[in-house]
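Handoff note, outgoing to incoming analyst
You'll be picking up this chain. Sequence as last confirmed:
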Amino acid sequence: MPTRPDLTNRNSWVRLFEHGAKAEGSTPLEHPPQHGFDEDDPAIKAWELVRTGTAATRLLDLEGMSPDEASIGPMLRPRDDLAIEVWTECELSVMHAAWRLALDAEGDPEARRRLTARLRRAVEWHLEHTQPDNATSRPWAIHVFLELGHPDVEAIDYAANMLHAADAARMSGGGDDRLRGWILDDAAAALRRIGTPRIGAVEPTGLGNDDGAR
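Most recent structure output, in case you need it:
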């Protein structure tokens, strides 16, 4: 009988993401093969910051972003002109890009701290308010929920449901999705960049403990 994977273990999720990406026929790419809902899509602009290596905290000043305050809330301001699925996919894509910028900001601890703190508040809000299948079966920021979500069991369950929605979309006749595969490939790569055995072992002002302790 197959052994159930330990979903508190980082490598378990890496394997799950890599398996999902392979099932989508994903070809590893540096940046996502995506198209915005319009020219003002903040997600497109966020990924442009990643592509160009721009100062990480510029993401917090993009048009459409919520104020960088201490309150719990999404990264983006709500938009009445967008369906909830479209807004959610854009929001989670921005969160995915923000975590990449935080990981890349090795020489700027203040930028890393601000982005990580802002992402924690967004993750907390989504765990409370957003259904994990609200993003058209594309699991943007799935790894961010694992790293920054608390309580751990709730974040793990949320990520598992996101992954299930992606698998169900592929198996129900939706076919392979190159973007979905890219998202899972990139999520696996991001998990590997933090050297702790457990997911979620990310300190408020850093990206993991040197000894791997939680």
